[in-house]
Design goal:
Length: 644
């Protein structure tokens, strides 16, 4: 445990070195004034033995190093106070602290302060972190206690003796990420939180009641436990108030009955018609009519084009691109029992179990008229010639002017996306760390192979995303939908394909050899955090802002162990390696294409990763890590002070 924590701290430390190195910062002087200010601040404290080395004759900071206990320095200026677990009491002189222009985070955790909450809003719009937990602060917090604190992201008030309502101004903080309010005596209803960046708001063990606002419905249940009467997601639904029921209920029931009757009647009529049609059709039907109906149930298959295809289907031959594979034709696929797998951005895909045994996937592409027939055939043969353990092989295809079918094997275990985001059953275990590592290594190898095979293509994959990473029964990844850029219609590609969501395309209309690397980076971050990259949901270029927010949030601000997917098991002794992968993900997601790694570097770094941290990692980093011992101090606070 300790070692893990150390490694993490070490990483935080290394990472903030990078942050700091990147920052252009003018060293603030005025050391002396700041020293006076701090001594003034100290005057109002009691039991301050811990601060005995606060002495004007010692300078406060040299560079990033602090010489006064509990001070945090950055580039020669005081940016944080971390007075934790020092048995301090007395008055917190906020007024004095306002004279420290670079102050970004203050922590008085686990001391013996009491009385009302200090008037922190006087510190204004620059403060990022406030840590007051584990004291004896008490009384109501005024509603406007946090007004104007537009940079505040982390507020920890837990385990005090606060009473009354949760202050409205706290809920209105625009970029609040974490708030610990648990273990107090807050009562009344929970206000709606406005921040779009909320990560964890813990309200457990208070006296709160009423509905949980929508903004908090994604928090874990444990954030609400130990209250009197909270209801609504993620807890049990609220019971609607009894008074209002009777009249409305009668109206609703009546309306429902009428609607149901209408549906039944309509259904009977339609059914009558359909049977008639069927009977008419059957006279001229081919023997396989019944199996065809299976397909036709799905709307997609009722388009005129489809009908035509299947009428002539006896003569329709599939083009096989691999010699070793068993032959079948479209007719066999139609005869097989089919199941719609889903409809992606290109068209629907179907799973068909052939009578002879194998299960195939048929994927329909409507927007593949970029190249003519011969060229298409030639390119498909080329794809068929690819062979790599991490590529889903193309088996056959079918060419028709308006649409193409690509036929591949069916992969049992579904896609990485479905494992990360689409769990049917909440008890189903998430992918563990060794599995995730194996997956990303496989993805990297498959991608490297594509780069080697298509040296002249800008986007050898072009559509790398978690739903295109399929998993076989051993959770080995198989890349799907690769190398299709040359045959997809340009407009459609730019609207839907993953590569075109990259910053270089959304901003500068260009893609480069490093664009697939960006997709790889997103995949890494998605896999480690369990978060879905929301921009993929949007079509066309509009997704950019969302992506920026997401990458920023994950990479720049959640740069700690907390960022990892809670469902990821088997992380013991691997946290250093996980952080390395996170860093790799970030380097792949670098917006500046010049600075972004190219694929060979990314693959090399990924290949170097191990399941467990090696001894050498923690022994050499541990000593530096020591100084960052509390959660009040993360690089987050550092990076804020650099940026703010
Ligand atoms: C500060 O340090 C000097 C010299 O080390 C010492 O003489 C002085 O008493 C100290 N002042 C305080 C307030 O501790
Ligand atoms: C703070 O630390 C970082 C890393 O050592 C360094 O790059 C930066 O220059 C330091 N700032 C000062 C003023 O020493
Ligand atoms: C909660 O999570 C779901 C799915 O992850 C998301 O669609 C929804 O927007 C989230 N709600 C809030 C209030 O964050
Ligand atoms: C919230 O706080 C309680 C202690 O009051 C703790 O048991 C629980 O794990 C916390 N939940 C979250 C999501 O932090």
């Amino acid at each position: 445990m300790q070692i893990m924590a150390r490694t993490r701290r070490t990483w935080n430390w290394l990472i903030l070195l990078v942050h700091v190195a990147l920052a252009c910062f003018v060293v603030a002087s005025g050391d002396l004034e700041e020293a006076e200010t701090l001594l003034k601040f100290k005057e109002s404290l009691s039991d301050d033995i811990a601060l005995s080395n606060w002495n004007e004759s010692i300078s406060l900071c040299t560079g990033n190093e602090s010489h006064w206990k509990g001070l945090m320095c950055l580039n020669g200026a005081v940016f944080g106070l971390q007075l934790e677990g020092m048995g301090l009491r007395g008055m917190i002189n906020i007024e004095a602290l306002t004279k420290l222009p670079n102050l970004r985070t203050i922590s008085f955790m686990n001391n013996a302060f009491d009385g009302p909450m200090p008037q922190v809003k006087e510190l204004g719009g620059a403060l990022r972190g406030l840590f007051l937990s584990g004291n004896k602060f008490s009384g109501n917090i005024p509603d406007d206690a946090f007004t104007g604190m537009k940079s505040l992201r982390r507020v920890y008030l837990e385990n005090n003796e606060f009473t009354g309502k949760i202050p409205k101004s706290l809920a209105k903080l625009p970029i609040l990420a974490d708030a610990g309010l648990h273990g107090n005596q807050f009562d009344g209803e929970i206000p709606d939180f406005v921040s779009k960046q909320l990560r964890n708001v813990n309200l457990s063990n208070n006296r709160l009641q009423g509905p949980i606002p929508d903004s908090l419905q994604n928090m874990s249940q444990s954030s609400f436990s130990g209250n009197n009467g909270l209801c609504g997601k993620p807890l049990d639904p609220c019971k609607s108030k009894k008074k209002a029921i009777p009249k409305i209920a009668i109206i609703i029931v009546a309306a429902a009955v009428v609607a149901l009757a209408a549906i039944i009647i309509a259904w009977c009529i339609l059914r009558g018609r359909r049977t008639k049609k069927k009977q008419l059709g059957q006279s001229s039907a081919k023997p396989n009519k019944k199996e065809l109906a299976n397909y036709k149930q799905h709307k997609e298959y009722q388009s005129p084009g489809r009908q035509e295809t299947y009428k002539k289907s006896e003569s329709v031959k599939l083009d096989f691109v691999r010699n070793e594979r068993e032959r079948f034709d479209l007719q066999d696929l139609l005869r097989a029992s089919a199941e719609v797998l889903g409809s992606g951005s290109f068209g629907s895909s179907y799973k068909a179990k052939l009578l002879t045994g194998p299960t195939m996937v048929v994927k329909r592409f409507r927007n593949m008229s970029n190249v003519g027939r011969n060229e298409f055939h030639e390119y498909m043969r080329r794809l068929g010639g690819l062979s790599h353990p991490n590529l889903l092989p193309l088996v056959a295809f079918y060419y028709k002017k308006g649409e193409k079918l690509l036929i591949t094997d069916f992969v049992k275990n579904g896609s990485l996306a479905s494992h990360l985001h689409g769990k049917q059953n909440p008890n189903q275990p998430g992918l563990d760390w060794p599995t995730r590592l194996r997956i990303i290594k496989g993805v990297a190898r498959g991608l490297a192979y594509l780069y080697k095979e298509f040296p002249s293509q800008t986007l050898p994959h072009g559509h790398l995303k978690s739903s295109n990473v399929l998993l076989d029964q051993n959770f080995e990844p198989l890349l799907a939908d690769y190398a299709l850029v040359p045959v997809i219609n340009k407009e459609h590609a730019q609207q839907f394909m993953a590569a075109y969501k990259s910053p270089e395309f959304t901003q500068h209309d260009r893609t480069t050899k490093k664009t697939d690397v960006w997709s790889l980076g997103i995949l890494i971050l998605e896999m480690l955090t369990g978060k879905f990259p929301a921009n993929y949901l949007k079509q066309g270029k509009g997704g950019n802002a969302d992506l920026a927010a997401w990458v920023n949030l994950v990479v720049r601000e959640e740069w700690t162990g907390e960022v990892f997917d809670k469902d990821m098991k088997g992380t013991k002794n691997g946290e250093g390696e996980m952080l390395k992968l996170l860093k790799i993900g970030m380097c792949c997601c670098e917006w500046n294409v010049e600075r972004r790694w190219d694929l060979t570097v990314a693959v090399k770094k990924i290949e170097e990763l191990k399941e467990r941290d090696s001894d050498e990692d923690y022994s050499s980093y541990a000593s530096e890590g020591e100084m960052y011992s509390s959660r009040a101090m993360t690089d987050e606070d550092f990076s804020f002070s650099v940026n703010g």
